[in-house]
């Protein structure tokens, strides 16, 4: 529980970052719908590079 203590305060302190991350997830979902076979490679690659950066 100690690790999760600051999660709610992070949202209020970094609202712009949260909106940006939400927009990236929304665009990835949109790509999944419109680029069906290619999105099976592109979306995990996008998320993998995002977490690696």
List keywords for this structure.
single chain; 53 residues; mainly alpha; elongated
Reconstruct the topology from this structure:
Layout: H1 7-13, H2 15-34, H3 36-52
Written account of the structure:
The chain is mainly alpha-helical. It has a domain at 22-53. It is built from 3 helices and no strands. It has helices at 7-13, 15-34, 36-52. The chain is elongated.
Low-pLDDT segments: none
How many DSSP H or I helices? 3
Which term fits the overall shape?
A: elongated
How far apart are the termini?
A: 26 Å
Biggest β-sheet strands, sense, barrel: none
Order of helices and strands: HHH
Radius of gyration: 14 Å
Q: What is the average per-residue confidence, as pLDDT, rounded to a whole number?
A: 76
Q: Tell me the strand percentage band.
A: under 5%
Q: Which structural class do the helices and strands define?
A: mainly alpha
Give helix % range: over 70%
Q: How would you briefly describe this protein structure?
A:
With 53 residues, this protein is an all-alpha fold. Helix content is 83%, strand content 0%. The chain has a domain at 22-53.
């Amino acid at each position: 529980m100690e690790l999760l203590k600051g999660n709610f305060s992070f949202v209020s302190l970094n609202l712009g970052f949260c909106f940006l991350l939400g927009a990236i997830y929304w665009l990835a979902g949109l790509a999944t719908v419109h680029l069906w076979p290619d999105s099976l490679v592109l979306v995990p690659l996008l998320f993998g590079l995002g977490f690696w950066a």
